[in-house]
Amino acid sequence: MSSIVGQGKFRLGRGRSGLGLFANVMFAAGERVIEYTGERISAEEADRRRGRYLFHIDAGHVLDARGREHLARYINHACRPNCEAREEDGRIFITAKRAIAPGEELNYHYGRVYFRAFIAPVGCRCATCARRAGAVSRRTASAPPPPPPPAPHAAGSGRRGAPARAGTAR
Ligand SMILES: [Zn+2]
What we know:
This protein is an alpha+beta fold and 170 residues long. It has one domain (5-137): Beta-clip-like (Beta Complex), CATH 2.170.270. Helix content is 15%, strand content 26%. It is built from three helices and ten strands, in the order ββββαββββββαα. It has helices at residues 43-49, 112-119, 127-137; strands spanning 10-15, 18-23, 32-36, 39-42, 54-56, 61-64, 76-77, 83-88, 91-96, 107-108. The protein has a three-stranded antiparallel β-sheet with strand order 3-9-8, with no helix packed on it. A three-stranded antiparallel β-sheet has the order 4-6-5. A two-stranded antiparallel ribbon has the order 1-2. A hairpin with a 4-residue loop joins strand 5 and strand 6 (61-64). Mean pLDDT is 83; it is low at 152-159 and 161-170. It binds zinc ion. Zinc ion (ZN) binds next to helix 3.
């Protein structure tokens, strides 16, 4: 993968959940990290296309980031993420929730609807859920099965809609 992409602020790499986007530089809490860019299409058109990189801005508008130049599409879901998606004037900005150091993988919560539809059935692979799964496996075999991971509220208004992606970027 080219390191020129993203003006050196990002790199693509292997994350916990497959291919992911990593910070090459520091980001301050509250700073805009990257815009979620894509082709702007209607919700109806999104339903026709399906696809893996649809971001629902609101009820009627969707960004389709199927082109590889749309870097933000590589950001994976996490249940306790370091970024959040914020909608401003119909655009989606991935913003740092806390200070982010170079080398950290960027992630944000894809939203409760998306989580329940696509992530929970196969098991979330984010760091938080992996720790929880590890703790469960150390208990005795007679322990009851663990409850499904809770899906916290999405921090931003920009959410992935349920009919959109068939899975996370892998
Ligand atoms: Zn998780």
